[in-house]
Design a protein that fits this description.
Order of helices and strands: EHEHEHHEEHH
Shape: globular
Strand content: 5-15%
Length: about 200
């Protein structure tokens, strides 16, 4: 049986039956090896890919949901601007992150670093797997002015798709939604990716 891995944040982290990740795996008749990590940065995706690469455990289908450029890497905590500390964790970590955003984060530099990191990974790491594995890129948050050449590039946003008709985002998001999407939205998103993959086969 072929395998599939999801690298990204909470937009590809749900393992429920109505998750687009689970639906896509079923459409492709694949076993899921890894889901995304809620609140994570692009560096979590890079590090998880490196682990899979080093252990010769890369999946047949590799799906990347590229998250926002402002997220800081931490192995267990979701460090984003204005995040509230999680009860029971070290308050100093959260305060350090907020101090970084306040005093050391510069939009122009962060944007360039983000673009360079993604393009280097795409062109120098993923490119070698482009012929024998299916690679799919998409954006978790807002689409960026970045072209990614390896595999299939769906230049669309999971976030915008999840807002489409989703009244839960008019106020506080419903955290029980799989990947922040309704059942219908999850199904539509899975089918969109499946059609993109099928059209390139």
């Amino acid at each position: 049986m072929k395998t599939i891995t999801f690298y990204g944040d909470s937009f590809c982290a749900s393992d429920t039956q109505d998750s687009w990740c689970v639906i896509l795996a079923e459409l492709l008749n694949c076993k899921i090896k890894r889901f995304g990590v809620g609140g994570s940065s692009i560096w979590t995706s890079f590090l998880n890919f490196e682990k899979d690469q080093k252990t010769n455990d890369l999946a047949d289908y590799m799906i990347f949901c590229w998250t926002d450029e402002t997220r800081l890497y931490h192995p267990t905590l979701p460090l984003t601007p204005n995040n509230k500390p999680i009860l029971g964790t070290d308050i100093n970590v959260w305060q350090s992150a907020q101090n970084y955003y306040k005093y050391l984060s510069f939009k122009e530099k962060d944007t360039i670093a983000y673009r360079y990191a993604l393009q280097f990974f795409d062109q120098n790491v993923l490119k070698k797997y482009d012929k024998d594995r299916v690679i799919v890129h998409m954006w978790s948050m807002m689409p960026q002015q970045i072209n990614l050449d390896s595999g299939i590039f769906i230049n669309e946003s999971c976030l915008i798709h999840s807002w489409d008709g989703n009244i839960n985002y008019q106020g506080t998001p419903d955290l029980n939604l799989s990947n922040h999407m309704t059942k219908t939205q999850n199904k539509t998103w899975a089918e969109k990716i499946y059609e993109n993959i099928n059209s390139r086969m």
